[in-house]
Amino acid sequence: xxxxxxxxxxxxxxxxxxxxxxxxxxxxxxxxxxxxxxxxxxxxxxxxxxxxxxxxxxxxxxxxxxxxxxxxxxxxxxxxxxxxxxxxxxxxxxxxxxxxxxxxxxxxxxxxxxxxxxxxxxxxxxxxxxxxxxxxxxxxxxxxxxxxxxxxxxxxxxxxxxxxxxxxxxxxxxxxxxxxxxxxxxxxxxxxxxxxxxxxxxxx
Length: 204
Hints:
By secondary structure, the protein is mainly α.
């Protein structure tokens, strides 16, 4: 009960912070592409419009979070699934890094817009409709355990391959940085899945 009360108290501050982050990210994407919306022709113009559109979507979602969103008639509250917070923190950091990298390449570029779209998707996973989650932990079945282990192994393999590719492509800084971030994310997610699996099996 105490935990539920704490989560309820934190919902509004986290919602407002998430909204502010989404709006900030979106405005950066729009500002980066603003000079190219009408001042270019052909492919560059479409790239600028798509990237700016991603920024506008982030701003809209941010304002929606400020207002106090509802889903299926119920208020959105913070999720009780702790792994989502770690995953969101990692992904938001990755998206911020991708945006910074995108601002340093030839413009206009989709890399100045797509991070904003990804950003809001990871922030939104922190919220669920009120009373939609079961708070008790149910152990995995043997089939579920095997499925999770396959997922963990696949993520580890992807992470190793991505980091290896980043090292091999060190001459292309942007591609190498993206592959390195993707590889680290895969490895981190694999560790988080392993911890979650242990929790669901009642292990330390």
